[in-house]
Amino acid sequence: MSEQNIPVIDIKSLYGMDRQEIARTASLIGDACRGIGFFYIKGHGLSLDDIEALFATSRDFFALAEDVKKQVEISPSTGNRGYVPMRGEALDPSKPADLKEAFNIGLELAADDPELVTGARFRALNLWPDQPGFRETMLDYFETALDIGRRLHMAFATELGLDADHFEDKLDRPLATLRLLHYPPQRGVVEDGQMGAGAHTDYGCVTLLLTDEVGGLEVRTRTGDWIKAPYIPGAFVCNIGDCLMRWTNDTYVSTPHRVVSPAGRERYSIAFFLDPNPDAIVECLPTCSGPGNPARYDPIRGDDYLESRLNPTYKASGLA
Predict the structure, then answer these.
(1) Ranges of each domain in the chain
(2) pTM of the predicted model as reported, rounded to 2 decimal places
């Protein structure tokens, strides 16, 4: 596989019981994770109509008046949930704030959940806008995306020589975030280095991204070239994040990427970031070290790792 190309992988075997086919799919995914760090997936069971309904709901939210959206604005007390206004974060802290707005949704918890009662980090009630159908649509998709993410982790474990269910008890109450993104048309003066989303690697284990046809996502190859990730109808763009890179002792390597929104065009995307359970210990997997290849990172809890990555992003734009 040329690392200048992002492979397209059919994952329908991950929904079956044929171990040989599962291993074949896992091998393709592993090759991508060891290579460019990005891959498309199809065969995930989500229809084009399902995807369009998600985007329609997202577009309706971002079309609301600013004062309405700010009623559910993110803050240090909302557990990384809620509305992120324009220029509300800088994914590349060395550059001006990003030209996008977003809405974050986390794992849905009951008001009397023990983690909420004790004030655990990154645990909070989701904030919901006054928009008919929004909550139901997004929670249904959250569960779908989480299921796909778990199946991908089954493939990771298989490819890495672990039991297929190795990650299951580390992803049953994950610090996952469903993120709706809107990149308005860029008009007027744009600061030097400012773009839709600055160059960055993702924090967690794996990202599942749905995009519209506008494009704009760019991926940096291992040789340092930036290539476009073209829109493929019905396919997710997936990439591994820094947490999985750490877990695999750099066997899988995360890849910098950015969003360069086409001038004068509006862009929407929907991302699902799968981070592990807060108490999951992220440490070198037993098959990812050996003589001459010692563990490169100290063990760390999932919530400690996430906090270490989120703080610089929001401090750069004054929200932390």
Answers:
(1) 8-315
(2) 0.91
